[in-house]
Amino acid sequence: xxxxxxxxxxxxxxxxxxxxxxxxxxxxxxxxxxxxxxxxxxxxxxxxxxxxxxxxxxxxxxxxxxxxxxxxxxxxxxxxxxxxxxxxxxxxxxxxxxxxxxxxxxxxxxxxxxxxxxxxxxxxxxxxxxxxxxxxxxxxxxxxxxxxxxxxxxxxxxxxxxxxxxxxxxxxxxxxxxxxxxxxxxxxxxxxxxxxxxxxxxxxxxxxxxxxxxxxxxxxxxxxxxxxxxxxxxxxxxxxxxxxxxxxxxxxxxxxxxxxxxxxxxxxxxxxxxxxxxxxxxxxxxxxxxxxxxxxxxxxxxxxxxxxxxxxxxxxxxxxxxxxxxxxxxxxxxxxxxxxxxxxxxxxxxxxxxxxxxxxxxxxxxxxxxxxxxxxxxxxxxxxxxxxxxxxxxxxxxxxxxxxxxxxxxxxxxxxxxxxxxxxxxxxxxxxxxxxxxxxxxxxxxxxxxxxx
Length: 453
What we know:
The chain has helices spanning 2-11, 20-24, 47-60, 112-120, 138-144, 151-154, 189-193, 227-239, 252-258, 282-298, 310-321, 323-328, 346-360, 386-402, 418-424, 427-440, and strands spanning 16-17, 40-42, 64-67, 84-87, 94-98, 103-106, 124-125, 161-167, 173-177, 202-209, 211-212, 216-224, 246-250, 272-280, 303-307, 333-340, 363-369, 374-381. The protein folds into four domains: 2-87, Uridine Diphospho-n-acetylenolpyruvylglucosamine Reductase, domain 2, CATH 3.30.43.10; 98-212, Uridine Diphospho-n-acetylenolpyruvylglucosamine Reductase, domain 3 (2-Layer Sandwich); 216-324, Alpha-Beta Plaits, CATH 3.30.70.2190; 331-414, Alpha-Beta Plaits (2-Layer Sandwich), CATH 3.30.70. By secondary structure, the protein is of the alpha+beta class. It has a seven-stranded antiparallel beta sheet, sandwiched between helices. A five-stranded antiparallel beta sheet has the order 5-6-10-8-9. It has a four-stranded mixed beta sheet with strand order 1-2-4-3. The model has no long low-confidence stretch (mean pLDDT 95). Helix 8 packs antiparallel against helix 10 (282-298), helix 8 packs antiparallel against helix 13 and helix 13 (346-360) runs antiparallel to helix 14 (386-402).
């Protein structure tokens, strides 16, 4: 095809791959969305390559999917038939860490944990910590507005994006935002691009806000007989003004899946657990830890383990981060939903998932960021039961809406939740979003199958 020849000529054949074996590596992401093999895979080495590629692709009307590490759980990194994937594995430099101005400048292919390690070496702190931080990229984090356990206290990715370099669908390179603490000149375009899932432009550079590294940190593992007592503890902690950096809940099905990784830390009779982390300064830090003990005991805690040494803390967090891989190792396909409800309604949601199990005959395992009401409801199923999966998802999401929540908290919309997004948003608001998409991408080449029906 002529457009492929032009790509190879303008970018170099080593950056443009069209052999089937290579293309098939980028046919799916970490969701259960059906695989689609792209026509071409592009590996840019700088923003100039992205500019050249998009000018050719836009002129030819070729569907284009930007991709980091493919850790999306909503189908957002799966290409469209006949389309192209732009992979940022070669644009992976940390360009600057500015300790004086508390910021970092990175390329989109930087692995999130690499930035964590680099800034902590300078006694600085980048809070967003998605569960896949050892594999996901910062470009993907921005595209999805990724969160993670620390979102309760520190917020999500959008709270740390200062400035973006973006290439439009037509190949125009522009900067939006400013590398300053304050900035109100015009609309907040960095926030518009953050969470846009590659539908408005392709990000080629990110300037991120940093914080001073907290001097003290403790992780608490609270074991409860069931999810209800654990959820009540969460509600009371927040009501009493506690603000942990992380407040995670794991239900009994996930507890069974994670097995030996967490068993040494849990007493007999544990049906659910909370992982609570505090960081901070001085006496306020100590007071919050003490009050957490009191509230947990009031709500029937079986045992509460406090870990301040780094080795034990890492083992506890590794067990929590292994919950999803452990579920996947059971041999089921999994639909990952990341709904959000008011914290006080978490017990109702978890109770309702058991009713959905009875109605559909499917297994449902839940865990997540209880501190901000973001619960990952995972539907486990065998091949051929996709119809039951859709029914289960719709039942769960309708209950979430009834409880005053939303269908997506941090995994994005992708291809799997676009019908739910259409149903959740008022038609006028949905129309505004589609209008923005048309403005930034008139020919509709940037992830045209993502977000919108």
